[in-house]
Amino acid sequence: MAANLASKCSRVGRSLFGGIGNNLSNLLSTSHVMKCSHFLSQQQRMFIQMRTVLKVVDNSGAKKVMCIQALKGKKGARLGDTIVASVKEAMPNGKVKKGKVVYGVVVRAAMQRGRCDGSEVKFDDNAVVLVDKQGQPIGTRVFGPGTA
């Protein structure tokens, strides 16, 4: 619609104002692009789903894991959910080695999560704490902020 309006204005502008229409069409198309890019940036926050790479924020020895499966929900995992993951990067002397399949609890998620009081929690990255099958943490320390 904005492009159609801009093309009509540019045709009228050339005949009546001699070039002002070109500036008007550029202005309208730039504002349209800015609105679209703002809309797309709002839509980039997604669930933690298969093949999502997450940062490990405990001292278990793993640095990065890739989600294999979210254990709750069809779409994916959110803040506080448990996932099954594969270790992609690990420290040489850690408890967890590269390639091992582990469980993890999401402690930071880029997708916003609403609370009962109306507030929303959202982080800049996706982070996980590794746990065993019973839910006990593998590491002994958790680094950085996190809520679950």
Classify the beta-strand content into a percent band: 25-35%
Summarize the helix and strand pattern as letters.
HHEEEEEEE
What's the level 1 CATH class of the largest domain? Mainly Beta
Largest sheet: 5 strands, mixed, barrel
Instruction: Label the CATH architecture of the largest domain.
Output: Beta Barrel
- Total domain units: 2
Counted by DSSP, the helix tally is 2
The order of strands across the largest sheet is 1-2-3-4-7
Spatial separation of the terminal alpha carbons: 45 Å
- The average pLDDT is 79
Shape: globular
Cα-atom radius of gyration: 24 Å
Low-pLDDT runs of 5+ residues are 5-17, 27-43
What is the total tally of β strands? Answer: 7
- The structure class reads alpha+beta
Annotated CATH homologous superfamily of the largest domain: Ribosomal protein L14/L23
Helix content: 25-40%
CATH domain fold name of the largest domain: Ribosomal Protein L14
